[in-house]
Specification:
CATH class of one domain: Mainly Alpha
Helix content: 55-70%
Radius of gyration: 33 Å
CATH superfamily of one domain: MetI-like
Oligomer: single chain
Low-confidence stretches: 1-16
Strand order of the largest sheet: 2-1-3
CATH topology of one domain: MetI-like fold
């Protein structure tokens, strides 16, 4: 929309009249329910976006001696040395004749792979040893390089002689460098030093996740930096209005730049849903000198079969004794009245960094059928459900707006054809059409979350299209549209540059309701078994974990999350509808 001209006020500084969106957001700011809904949604999205930093079985910081890693390198050093010797003693022609059919390595590549295997094991051993113990290992590396060089030179006789010496050398190193038991240092063996400091949790966060973390952090802190920016602009309404697009560009640029920098330096991808650190720390395979876990140290796929369907640990019925038997409630075991037989139980395994067996904070929302923490899965499940709602709403609003704009602006035969297509799509029950398409989609070729988003968008765009068509039919004969045509602007420029900004009000309202509908649809599909696949959770899949009234926490907490989120979106949609309606604004002013 065009900018309102500046009005000179002789009694004071320059004053600017409010534009359309200034008035709309002023109306929204007066509504307590709208403000409350925005705050609640901001916190819900923050908990989902930052879920890897809040709930994870990977440590944030780990400085430790990994006895398991050291012993594995110690065991595999000799087989690697034998492999290098076997290849080096063989001529290139004999190697190519006798190599396995599954291998396509050349002779030089095979030598290099075997040498790299030895180098990897030696560097792993040195990582946990004092520098004065590196000498013999450096000699092993030197001998491996010389053996590989002799093999490349074709000197098989010298390679055979060196391979025999190399085997004895590695055997001696293995005998001298065996690690001791950290729990019993008196039994002998090497006591390892703390290795390098690693950041397993941070290394599992990808660029996409970092983009949204930075973006949401900037949005949450918007009241602070926006107020500071406005003060720098002298609280001048015209300059503030002109700075809206540069602010948005800065936010996106910072988020993209941070994501790219993160991917190039630290971040990676989560390869496995579970991590072995807690078990290794509990069993003593890793002896930590410094370890820091997030607030909730359980992973979304981490199970504990001794705590299946355990109620929230702040209720009395969740108390379990040392043997693994429940002490109260319906699950308290009763011996057979005749034989006295007591059903066996599995003692609860409390892993490293976890709360005590009966601590109220151990499982605040209980566990599911295989002992996975419900609070952790609720946080991670929000990432799927909320993203499906947002992305599907964006796509259906985009499709509906474009189709409705073409129909409303073109009129005539174009409007007739598009309107009939909309009516045909509306004839089919939306949810059953979505269910049918998702049911026949191969999850191996198309990820379920992608299929759900696309199908929701392709089925539910019709409502937005009808709204956009009505707005364009109302606006296409307005004076500013006639002026745009008279100036020779193309239809596309007239539609998207001049008419669309004036028709966005009802479309935004419909988009807010579409997010809520998308979340409900995804939850329903997951509840029926056609949603995201295990072990990745979503709010709908959490509800279906149990349908027994005995496991009340399974239905209540995910259902409450869905209810609160959908309610907040509906409140925001209602607030936008009222703020954009001139009649409602007039009534509120009266």
């Amino acid at each position: 929309m065009s900018e309102v001209p500046k009005i000179k006020d002789p009694a004071g500084p320059s004053a600017y009249s409010k534009d359309y969106w200034d008035i709309v957001f002023e109306q929204l700011g007066r509504r307590r329910l709208f403000r409350a809904a925005v705050v609640v949604l901001a916190l819900i999205y923050a908990s989902a976006i930052f879920a890897p930093l809040i709930a994870n079985d990977r440590p944030l910081v780990l400085e430790a001696a990994n006895y398991g890693e050291y012993n594995k390198a110690h065991r595999t050093l000799l087989p690697a040395a034998l492999g290098l010797g076997r290849v080096a003693k063989t001529s290139a022609e004999d190697y190519l004749e006798g190599r396995a059919r599954s291998s396509d390595f050349s002779y030089a590549q095979a030598l290099e792979q075997e040498r790299l295997a030895i180098e990897t094991q030696v560097l792993t051993l040195q990582n946990y040893l004092a520098p004065d113990r590196h000498g013999a290992l450096d000699e092993v590396l030197g001998a491996a390089e010389e053996l590989a060089r002799l093999g490349l030179a074709g000197d098989t006789e010298s390679a055979k002689e060196l391979a025999s010496k190399f085997k004895a050398q590695v055997k001696a190193v293995r005998a001298d460098y065996a690690a001791g038991d950290p729990a019993h240092p008196e039994e002998g063996g090497l006591q390892l030093q703390g290795g390098r400091t690693s950041y397993p949790l941070l290394e599992s966060i990808g660029r996409g996740e970092m983009f949204f973390m930075v973006l949401w952090g900037l949005l949450l802190s918007w009241p602070l930096w926006n107020r500071l920016t406005n003060r720098i602009l002298g609280m001048d309404r015209g300059r503030i209005r002109s700075a809206r697009k540069p602010k948005l560009a800065c936010v996106l640029t910072i988020s993209v730049g941070a994501a790219l920098l993160w991917g190039a330096t630290i971040g990676g991808e989560m390869t496995f849903a579970t991590a072995p650190y807690k078990d290794a720390l509990t069993d003593g395979e890793i002896v930590a000198t410094r370890v820091v876990f997030p607030l909730l140290s359980q992973g979304f796929a981490e199970s504990n079969n001794s705590e299946d369907f355990r109620p929230p640990t702040w209720v009395e019925a969740a108390m379990i004794d040392e043997d693994g038997y429940y002490e109260h409630g319906a699950r308290m075991p009763q011996p057979d009245p005749i034989t006295g037989y007591m059903p066996p139980a599995v003692p609860v395994r409390v892993r490293f960094s976890e709360a005590a067996r009966n601590a109220p904070s151990r499982h605040l929302l209980g566990t599911d059928s295989i002992g996975r923490d419900m609070l952790v899965r609720l946080l991670w499940g929000g990432r799927v459900s909320l993203s499906v709602g947002l992305v599907s709403a964006f796509l259906l609003v985009l499709i509906g707006t474009v189709v409705g704009a073409i129909a409303g602006y073109g009129g005539g035969a174009v409007d007739l054809v598009i309107s009939r297509v909309i009516e045909i799509v509306l004839c089919f029950p939306a949810f059953f059409l979505i269910l049918m398409v998702v049911a026949f989609t191969d999850p191996d070729s198309v990820p379920p979350i992608i299929a759900i988003v696309v199908v929701i968008a392709l089925v539910r765009w019709t409502g937005v299209a009808r709204l956009a068509r009505g707005e364009f039919l109302k606006l296409r004969d307005q004076e500013f549209v006639v002026a745009a045509r008279a100036m020779g602007f193309s239809p596309w420029r007239t539609i998207f540059r001049h008419i669309l900004p004036n028709a966005m009000g009802p479309i935004l309202v419909s988009g807010a309701f579409a997010v809520a509908a998308g979340i409900l649809t995804e939850s329903a599909l997951s509840f029926l078994g056609f949603g995201i696949q295990h072990p990745v959770p979503s709010w709908g899949s959490l509800v279906v974990e149990s349908r027994s009234a005995e496991h009340w926490w399974i239905q209540i907490f995910p259902g409450l999350a869905i209810f609160v989120t959908v309610l907040c979106y509906n409140l925001i949609g209602d607030a936008f509808r009222d703020a954009l309606d001139p009649k409602m604004k007039k009534e509120s002013e009266e």
